[in-house]
Fold:
Amino acid sequence: MKFEEPYFKSLNYTDYLDRKDKYLKSAQELRDLLKSFNLINKKTSIMDYGCAVGFLMEGFHSLGYKKIYGYDISKWATREAKNKGLKILKKIEPRFFNIMICLDVLEHMTDRQIEEVFENYKSDILIVRIPCSIDGKEFALEVSKHDKTHVNCKTKLEWAKLLSSLGYHTILPLNLLTIYDTPGVKCALCLKPNSSYLSQ
Structure:
């Protein structure tokens, strides 16, 4: 299935475009959290992988951050983001970002596709939100079960193992107002053990 306009507007959402304010708030909450750990400053580069139309990117821009990049496989969504002047990368190739954010995207990908992304996009800090399974058989949330583009169903432990294989061994649950860990959703701040941030 192509992730084009109907997907965002009607397939599994009332209308994704109505969520802008929530993503702007998420950017603020994530900035505050990262600042509390001294993990972000105005020179920090941020990749929003699976950026859709760029709401989260807009949020970070409004907070004064300039090195904000996005990537999404949806041609429709990236056109919308580019029309706002956002920096959308056309292809996945070796690059380093201080922070990489993956909200509601990894469940749409196979393990190998995820590995290919992280073989190219490197970061010391990773923030994830992933619908997950409790029993290892199906997604816990009904909305996640109904989305046919959700192809990777794992338990939280299984996701933790995959993230560890990608180099992220420090995984802290996130419980903010707009992004929070629940039995059916894994939300986490992940760090690499050799990250320069951990030695600050």
Q: What stands out?
A: Helices lie at 5-11, 20-36, 55-62, 75-83, 111-120, 142-146, 156-165.
